[in-house]
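User: I'm curious what two different proteins look like when written out as structure tokens. Can you demonstrate?

Assistant: Sure. I'll show them one after the other, since each token string lines up with its own sequence. Here's the first protein:
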Amino acid sequence: MTIREFFKENPAAAVAFSGGVDSAWLLHQAVRYAQRTAAYFVRSPFQPDFELEDAREKLGAIPDLRFVGPADAPHILALSLPGYPSQNIVTELSGQGICISAGSACHRGKASHVLTAMGLDKRTAAGTVRVSFGPETSFEDVDALFEALLAHRNTRFPML
């Protein structure tokens, strides 16, 4: 059964949305194919607060790194290395097996209206990346992210 067929048979949907990729995709499909959709934000219990706090503390030790936004999604951190283009960071870390996303979830190859509305300066907005944490994320993964971001900052010149 396809997602389209599911919503044809079940035209009303209530989607528990946690802010992650899976629930965002499901919510998008429900809005697209269901006749009525209600979205409910839920906090996922799989990511204990202390793990995200540990990641914030560790990554916060990188010189010039800024956290972006209130960090109220229980498993997503938005952070910036001002002056270092986010796509360059994503590309370099991807080559090391670290998957992160550039910008905000609402940008499409140009300045994000979300980051602009937050009042971020151009250098900070252009250097923003999103990091998602899941049940399999380990402290070693956070250490690898820290080392990779620090190395990027220390071996690249700011471009913005």
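Here's a second, unrelated protein for contrast:
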Amino acid sequence: MANPDRPWDWCELSQNPNITWEIVQANPDRPWDWDNLSMNPSITWDIIRANPNKKWCRTRLALRRDIFPDFTSDDEWSWDQLSANPHVTLKAVEANIDKPWNWFSLSKYLDITQEFLRANLRKWWCWGALSRNPHITWEIVQANLGMPWNWTGLSANPSISLETIMANLHDPWNWAYVSMNSGITWKNIQENISLPWNWYFLSHHSSVTLEIIQANPDLPWHYVGLSWNQNLTWEFIRDNSEKDWDWVGLSCNSFGYYHK
């Protein structure tokens, strides 16, 4: 490491992905922050497992993407943090079903199957989060109709198609959340324009492009919602400066930067 005697912020440096394990090993006397090293993506899970006596932070390790599928329960894990890892697998949970998992957190991300849910209905599921979990399909819902499904969550669940919603209009769908459902396409909207869409959320929707808005000027676009749309450009804002833009939304809008 060049210039190790500069006034580095060692806390921030420890989580910088340009810092490799080789650099850490070559500078063992430096004040590395082991909490942040534990989350550094350049330091792989294999490296961590090969160096068990280092001052790794188990809470941070539990949130790493790469601990699955080679997860082992032999280590002293923070089970709350492990449960909150969006990459936790059903295989890991099934193999350690007796461990103190946080079922509220697991409800959000776990790749749940119908068989696993039915075998574990007495667990402390969060039905609001479970209803929005993209691994929950309409088939699972139908097979467990007696469960306390949250219809707002189901309305936003991308695994539930508009075709399913249309076939079950008697159910208490929340159309604001249907309108923000990432599984809904512009074709769905266009072919069913008379449905009770929420145009604030539709204007925000990732499938709604500027070309669509320009080609359909008579639709009730909501410019406050549109202010948050990642497809927006500053040229479009400038050309439509008289619209009711939400400047908080525009200030937060990355304009597709993270999708480039």
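A detail about the second structure: The CA atoms of residues 79 and 101 lie 6 Å apart.
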